[in-house]
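[scheduler] slot 2 assigned
[scheduler] job type: sequence-to-structure, two independent chains
[scheduler] chain ordering preserved from manifest
[runner] begin chain α
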Amino acid sequence: SASSSSSSPGLDDMNLTATLRLLRLLVKYAGELKDELEPGFRTTPTRPWKGIIPQLFSRLNHPEMNARESVSDLLCRVGQDSPHFIIYPAIVGASRHTEKKTTMAGLIGEEDSRSGGPGNSGSYDMGSRELIGDAFSPSDAMNSDGQDTDLSETSPVEVSNLEKCLSVIVDTLTQKNQELVKSVRDLVAELCRITLLWDEMWLAALMQRQGEVHRRMMQIESEAKKTLSIPNLSKQDKDAIIKEKYKATMRPLLWVLEHLAAVTAQAPETPNERNFQRQYGKIISNALQQLKTPASYINPQSVWESFKQFQQMLMHQAQKRMQTSLSLNEISPHLAAISSSCIALPGHNQDDEPIMLESFQLEVAVLPTKTKPKKISMVGSDGRRHTYLFKGLEDLHLDERIMQFMAIINKMFAKAHKHRTQLYLARDYAVIPLGVRSGFIQWVDALTPLFGIYKRWQQREAYNRAMQQGTGSQSNMVPAPIQVLKPNELFYSKILPLLKEVGMTDQTPRKDWPLQIQLRVLKELMAETPADLLAKELWCATTCASEWWSVTQTYCRSTAVMCMIGYIIGLGDRHLDNLLVEFSTGQVVHVDYNVCFEKGRSLRVPEKVPFRMTQNIETALGFTGAEGLFRVSCEDILRILRRGRETLLTLLEAFVYDPLVDWTQSEEAAFPLALRSTGDGGAPRPSRKELEREVEEGLLVSRLAESSPNWQKNKSNLNTVLVALEDHLGEITGAEEKLAAYQEEIGRLDQQAEIFNDALSVPNHPLVSMQGSLSEQSRLMADQRHLIQKIGAIYRQHQEWNNKYKTAFVGIHDAGLGALISDIQKPMDLGVPWYEPAIGFVREVAGQAQLDMCYQLDQELCSLLQQRRIVLREALESFYTYRNITSQFPTNYLQQSHSYLWEKCLEPVMEALETSDPPSVPCEGLEQAVQCFEQLLARDSVPPKAVLAVDLRFKKQIQELGVRYNKLMERIKNFTKHEAMVAAVEKSEKDLRQLCVETPESGPGSLACFIITALCPLNRRWLVMEKTAQSARERLSELTSRDGDWFMDELCTMSGNVSQMINLLHMCCLTMGKDSINIQRTMAAVRSVHKVYSNLQDLMNKFQSLVLPELVNCVLSEDESFLEMLDTVAGLTIDTYEDTPIQEALSMLCDELKECSYNSQQADAGMIQALDDLRTKFSRVLLDKDGDTPLTSAQVILNSLNGFFRTCEQSVLELLAVMEEMDIPEEWENIDLIKQTEELMCNTAGVSLTEELLFVRKVQSVVDFCAECRRLLNVFQLKIDPAEVTRPGSPSKTAAQPSSSSVAAASAVVVPSMTTLSLSIRRYISETLVYHVLGQPSYSLSCLLTSVVLEGLDVEVSLQG
């Protein structure tokens, strides 16, 4: 580093780790450890903390007050002991929230890249960067989402806390040395003045806006042509509209130029500023006035000529300035006058005794980059000249933190090599931020950028070509200046013709460029550029072979150091100007750390490589290239950094919380972001969105003015037509209303006339007998009132009875009933007889006879109480029995009684009575009530035979489950010693592993031979079982062993045994060092097979243990969501298969997919559409349409089942992928066992479209499962067709003879069992095994045994045909 510490590296590293740990404890547990940490921070010595000064400043905005105060007090004590350690960050931080950003930050922006002078190989700016592309356009202020990118700001509370802490630190420094604080403030302010001079500011602003000006001028001309072509506008209106369009379009540009002119029109403070105003002040005013009010708004191209001339004058002056240096007396007399100051030189705060600033060198060099950085030299109190590069419009806090990070890494390197010469070194340099847009960078000599080497090679090549093309007569002439193409020009010159061939231009987004074309151009450029440019430079820079060898070794190690550090911090933007080499030592130096922490991945052209390793860099590494010393050094460096990862991670953690490091803005947005504030104290600049909105509003007003005549004409015509239309509509409406009234009156009169005519013509007309009819009506109305009273009484009677029964029903199901039974079952304690206290008195007064009578009465009373208690107990037990019986009833049991049904049928009748006046009930209402009641009774009437049949069927299923349960219990008894067996197996495995460790030469090989001997018969048995499954195919779901175990359980057991044995086999191979790629791949295949079997068995187990119990609960409770889910699944359709039931449609789709896979064809459009339709509809069944509504119980069951299916699908797909990657040698195919397995795989494992087939089978299983659930629900609801109860042809029995009919009924009624409900899952597992897995297990195990025998045990076997 620039300065070395006097303490040892080990002690510095320990101090750094300790201080970082304490700081982490403080910021994370400030409240919990307040009493322990505060006293320690108040008394801790300041020297160990001087190494993490930036981290202490980054914690000043901590939300906990005690943490802020502890850090602030510690910094104040550091400032009292050594003020030069904190003077610059304290002054800069305190003025950050109050300083006014200079206008040059608003008009020029950050330098996009730091670059030294072209061809500067003797000395180089340690912060230089290559200029990237053209100047920023105004659209750079917008991010990729079209949003305005403002400067990131902390919250007001954090800003206030940070300002308070910084103010306290500055006040402490002021009390210590007021002159020092004032001098540093004046120095920082004066340096900010010379960031950009006024002429540099104007030149950069005008150059950047060339494209914007041209675009806006073209827009104005286009708008003027449109306005002039409108025929309905007068000349005055057209001129006014064109003028408004001009003002609206030029408003953003005028704002920037006026703002810049206002800044440069302020009172000058330096000779340079006075010369600028005297020379260019009137030119700027005239050009601005001409731009505001041009002579012709229609043709405004001439208004920019004045600024073009002004720009040419500034460019001419800038070119002259590059040939000479500036005088500090001209640009900053205050800095030139400094002499013997008390200011510490920046970047030299590692020592307790600082170097003071004696004076500035009067010559200031300006580098030819966009923001014109100044090379300034200072004379220190040590008598030496210290050179810095002062940069403006760029935040250097991040570079400062990276330099600290690299300095700490160097300490780790020194500690790692403390007993020998230090091999690794990360070259760092001093970076001193002086604000959010300026700072110092230490200047280091004797460095050469790689771009300089490449450029010199280009110039040599161009010169040679020019000399070869010259004639003899021109040999004595002075050669013309040689022009070489820049790298981007060279790249575009090659790629643009190729892009044109494919119909693209340079305006096509780069992400759309064909990759083949880019790769072709890259290879051409690599072929044209020699790979040994850097290697030759290193050779030429040395004097002998030993020196060259030493320089090359240093170069390899230094490259490895920077590559690994760059990989850790995600360093990007590693172009040739950011890589420098010191040829005298071979050290590699990196600059420009602004693109780090993977920021390069978000660039327009993302950077995806971890570090730069091009052909020239690799060739310079020596004969071994990247596989020699470079690789060894990289591994060693990573080991060293991993040992110190805690320190490094703690150091990097401070970056996140540092209020002085801006993580939100990018370099490309630096110019428009800095323009947010003004330097003249005026109002802040409006955002780009506001300016663009003003432009659009102005153009909108102009558009409206252009169309105003047409709109006015349309408005008057429309008003006239609408008024006339309104009058006509009023007349038509009035006539229609009168016509309707007349027609209604005529109809009523016609009806009356017809009735009278009929009465006159018919002798017995009803009008004649009207009196009798009225009497009959009175009698019927009386009967109706009596009927209404009876209906009301019956309704209230049933309502009262239902309420009482409901209350009683709820009461017996209350917990109090059990408590009453418990109390009444306790022995009754009657206590002493009631006459016990008066026995003596009764005997003396009434005699013994009276006492015997009392005794007899007491006995009778006790007997009656005991009888009463027995009756009550029996009654309560009857209630409890009734409660247990009714607890098995459905939840809607009370709503199924006839009384309740009759009440509900009469409710509409009573509502009609209450709403009618007078009360009356239409006959239709009574008839509907009676029909409703009859239908409800008919719905609940179930044939007794059906009930008995269902009951017997359930009893039979219970009996079968009992038999299975007894068998399982017997098998469990045989496994009573399961834990002992497991312990014995584990001990055996441990002994085997110990054997391999103790006898590494013979043990692993012997054990491997034994395992292979055991696996061979297992493999043949596996093959036999797979052939059996292949023969069974569709019947595999019903295939069981003699013990009743399913075929799948046997396969899983065998797979588990094989998996355990290959783990031991793998351990043997690792111990012998024979873990070849074939062994790894075949073992991965066998493990994938075991994973498939385990997941399929897990699907069956979880279905039976989780899904089926929930299903029974839903059936018993008749869950509405469950019923809705069954209806939804049953109603699924596939649009491609119209009018086809879902089960048949799924079978057809599955068969079509199988046919395509067997013929090695892709699915056609119809099948793809059917699959997409099925996926969409199935996903709707799984998830509720409303995303905010929680899932129902039925959806939870279905989603759980779908998750089990998905796990199986993933394992099958992973198995097929592993098998695709497994590539065995051709000679292995001559082995008999592999041949047999390959034949089996050809018949079963050659199915493509695996994922689609698995999905269709999954949906098919779900549909079949839901159909069985519907059958089970119908059985529980006794929805049984009476025809199913009696077999066809058998004689009908009555309900009184259940014994003879029960067998026939039980055998006829279909009651889904657990096996039936699980059949769809078994079928899914069987088809998955047959069509996708069969043949893979035995093939993978055969290949594993072959690879271990041939490659692990090195057995020589002839495998030729």
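[runner] end chain α
[runner] begin chain β
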Amino acid sequence: MDAQKLTLLINYHLREGFVCKLQDICAQALSARTNDHVALFWRAVGLLLESRPAEALRELQPLLQSPQVGLAAKAALIYASGVAEDHDKDVAVMNMATELDEQSIAAPPSALLQLATFLWHTGSQERARACAERVLKHAPSDVAGSTLLGWILTQPHYEADTHAVEPEDLEQAISFFEQALSLQPRHTEALLGMSHCLQLRGKPGAALEQIHAVIAQQPWFLPALAEKAKVLVAMHEWEQASEVVSQLLQQEPDNMQALHLSGPTERVPGVGNEHIVLHTAGVHWLAREGSNAAAAGELKALLQALERQEPRNPALWLRFAQPYARLAGQDSAILGLSSALVLKACKAAPSSPKFAVEAGYQALLQGDVQGALAQYSRASHLHELDMEAMYGSIECDLLNGKVKDAASQLEFLKEVGSAGVGSLQAPDLLYLQGLLAWKQGSDLSQAASMLDQALQTRIEGLLDAAPSPLFFTQLNPSRILGVVRLFLGALGGAPKTADEPVSPLLSRCERLLEVLLKHCPGMAEAHLLLAESHHLAGASPVALRKVADVLRRAPDLLPAHLLLTRIYLHQGKVAAAQEALEQAVGMSFAIRESAAYATIRAQLLVAEGKNDEAERLLQAAMGMPGVKRQQTSQPRPTTAGRRVADPSLSERLAVFLLLAQTLSKAAKIPEATKVIEDAGREFLGGPEQALVAIAKAELSLARGEADAALSILKGIDRRSPHFLRALSLAAHIQLNHKRDPEAYALCYSQLAEQHRDYECYRLLGSALLRIQEPEKAIKASCSAHAGQALEAALEQQPKDGDLAAQIGNALVSIHQYRRALDYYHKAVRNCPASLPLQLHLANLLLRLKSWDSAEKVVRSILTGPEEGTGSIERQAAHAKALVMLAKVHKGRGSLAEYEEGLQQAMALQGQVVEAVRGDHPDLVAAHKQAAAEMQAELAGLYASQHKLDLAAEAYEGAVKADAGHHAAALALAKLHLDRGEEEAGRGVCTRLLAAQPDNVQAQLLMVQLLTTQEQYTDALSQLQQLVQQQPSDYAALEQLLTLLRRVGRSQEGQGFLQTAQEHASRASGVAGLHFCQGLYERHCSNDRAALKAFNLARKDSRWEAQSIFQMVGMYLYPEIEVLWAQAEQGNGPDQQPLQANMEAVAAAQKLLSDAHVTDQYALQHQVLSCYAQMASGREEDVEAALKQLLQLAGQQRDSVPVLLALASGFMLKKQIPKARNQLKHIQKIRYVADEADQYERAWLLLADIYIQSGKFDLAQDLCRKSIKHNASSGKAWERLGSILEREQAYKDAAEHYENAWKHDQQSPAIGYKLAFNYMKAARYVDAINICHKVLKAHPDYPKMKRDILEKARSSLRP
């Protein structure tokens, strides 16, 4: 090994702190040259740095006379005397120091370089710099001198706790390295130094080029690979860094840098013992991947490697342990390992306070406050003015509740700082001051500001730093997480309501966590706390996605399952919450002994209606150690050797408040009051006191004492983090209990006047809009106040397109469309670059069907200024604009251009999704959702055109783009079912229900599948269960009533309707309930009641089309049948119908003209319009309707409603063969449950044709087919009876007429036929009874009395 290689390796390993490795290198050099003074000297330095001064002194003494290292040896002896703390030799050391100064003046450059190098590596930066400058003064072209000076200027010694470099020093260092490389371009040390400087400049790419040059020139120098891995990590090129680490470990398995950047999995064959190739753990991988288990395994391997290679290097142990502890969160495995390493360092260097300080901090991270205090006290004993030890002791006092002691110590520190003694660090001091203010509880807002500022100051100091172990140590994620937990804990645990502003504490939490996750994207706890922050902010769907992401990373993370349970409970998903809680218990049975479990389990029990059981559970929780203050000193029990964590303040409070709520619900008001009073004493003086007051107000409200509740709420301090919640509750009381809308609005007005921020103005505007009743005329003054509030909010955030849109929507909500358009135009002129505003304007124009104006706005978006073109936001806006342009074409009837526009939008949105891949998950999800919406829109077009293959492909694309696009999945499943692809439809529904078990639409599709397969019993059972669970789900109730009719049990629907009415908050105003009532009445042939209910239901847009179509069918279908009868009797369709018929037709036409029809119901509307036209009976109207129907049939050849309408028209034209052909075509079309009534009417019409032609067998088959699908089909039973009556089988005919009469007792014609066949079958009494029923409802019904009643009576006489 030549001298240059030796120097290179010595400097590198000393920079990294590998002193044992340094000794090995020197020993290797001495094996070739036994008297190499440089190797001997640096081996002695290694002993010295290992705190082995006696051995080092023995090796240094012979080197004092060496011309090359004599000066450095003398400096090492002086340093050794300090390490050995030999005060008896102070005079000799002083003399030696004087000699060193005198001899260095005339020393040769080689000796000065060795001296400067030693001084640099032992922390004497200024003296090292002076020596190096002296070398360059005498030899300006000395490459080694220039290189060394560059390193001295840019990197402190390995034990330093900061890498901060002054800008001027960095520039000088670069010039020195450039000078060295100009003289010797292949100088390895200079190349490494230049790389280091470029990294400090924030140019990792250029730094990597320098490393590549080193690797190319010096392939033997394996540390260059470690440096390359560091640079790649700084560039966030994690995969490449992992490959380099693996390459390095294959060549040098125990390389410390590689082990520090990686984690254990494989052995390398043929290379040493227990050699580890690590894929993705280590400090950086812990921060990136968040795999704590893998990191713990890697740390164990790293400790083993340290034991082998650096068994006496406490400084290195400390440096390696620190980042792991700060990245571990609350992971006990990693903290235990890192703490053991630090305690080992304390034992190896018992006189060094810094190891004791670190041991104290790691004990604090593990929740051992007393242990931490002992270590900090030991550090202070070793060094009375050690500021970090003082900080730690103060934090321990605060955590122990010794607030006064901590305050006096902080005051002392301020005095020490003002006297210039010690080294006060502003962020740490500010953190302690903030923590003290928080514990004092006088002004939590100010305390939170101080804590936030302390963390922000530290973060800002690291903005330009690249990721490295030291970076994570200085960032200290554990402290950030601790502050976030403190803030979130103060908020209680209940999410904010819609009328409540977002707490400033939540804003602080989200900001801190987003910064932390930018640097540590793999920290599961940070993601989990961010999810909890979203949950408390009322964004439960976002929180749910976050928790799901955390569980994908760490499926065994217990707090994640608990948070998931809380979110599901808040969303009312009791079954999902129960499952999540069971998973948590399955991972740790000890959790059942915690207060957190008790509160969550109690909420589940309350949701299931088991209030008594919940009360018992909470009463037991009150006795748990730690829940009540007087019990906090008791030791916690253990389960299976595991310590049960003490409950947090928020968990303790939750037990009290939930117990009070449970007692209140059970009408145990005195007991609930006592619990609240106990809570008030327990949490007196803290931020939780306000939550207790709010609970007390809610209890007063439960007693009906609204004024008392308001009085309690007014007593909550405005500085409390819960003041906004109190104000929101007060507003709720004013509006809903006091019925005082002005006082309700005044609450938010006062809030806006006090804070004058965006959120408060927005809430004020929303409140002012909310108090307007839609039935009343909206006063301009009230809407003006709302507009002023929203505009004031807009002034706070003038570029908030969403808020500007809300102002426009506010105007639209009061039907002032012209004002809304004027506002949007003005807003767009004031902010022409705001694409969201232009999109909102275009959307409003589309709603108003102003196609030309909408197209103009959309094209201005697409052809706008080029600034920012190519940005993700602009591309996404252009994609939305293309969709709107496509809708303009659709509105004009140009479906080809509509399709082309959607395809263009999809292509552009696809580029957006690719561009954001790997970005923030919420952003990616939003753009994927937009892409899915476009696919679904296109699929809807294809479905309407009966291009079913293309529709299925587009729906599948939508689901692939966004797995959460349940509407597309539902449409795809329905499409499969309609096409007879039952297994494919079942598969889509199954996957959808697995992701969203409570999806009612998916459950209804599964019912449809069972119905299609004629499994009516199973389908009915599932529907009944669904309706019982959700009585107010009117879509499910509608299907249940329909299915009950099909199985012949319509009367059972009355009970379900009554239950639904009981659960409806305002039954008279629930359109879905009215629709279901109308459906039931129609099934029971109560036409008048059905029409009344449908008329009420059609006032709601959700049920309008279906209600109108039901009413139109009731008006038209009987008239069409009358015309058929007239045609069969030889009266042509040009015969003038009765006046009553014309009134029914006119009513149907009026309903159809008033209907607001969407694409979903467009075809049905067209077909019914044709029926209405034919029902007039005029020849020209029938011809016109048939012409339109033939056009529709050409477009949709297998549409059952169109073909049936065509057949009806041909019947009216007496073109029976043509009608029969259309009906036979329908017979060949696969049965679809959604069009069951159309199929039934077609089969019965064809049966009538067969009956007229004497083909009774074919007619009977069709009737039985109708009954198979609808057992309540009175007309099918009637036709079967008529066939048997013609065959004079009166007894059998009577049985069929009985079934017809059972399902339609309002029809006198069926009653007549039934009575007649009873009489013919000699069932005279039955015939007489039926006659009485018919005559009671229809006294003048012809022939009934004379032909049947009198004859039956006479037949009974003897």
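[runner] end chain β
[qc] chain β: The mean pLDDT is 81.
[scheduler] slot 2 released
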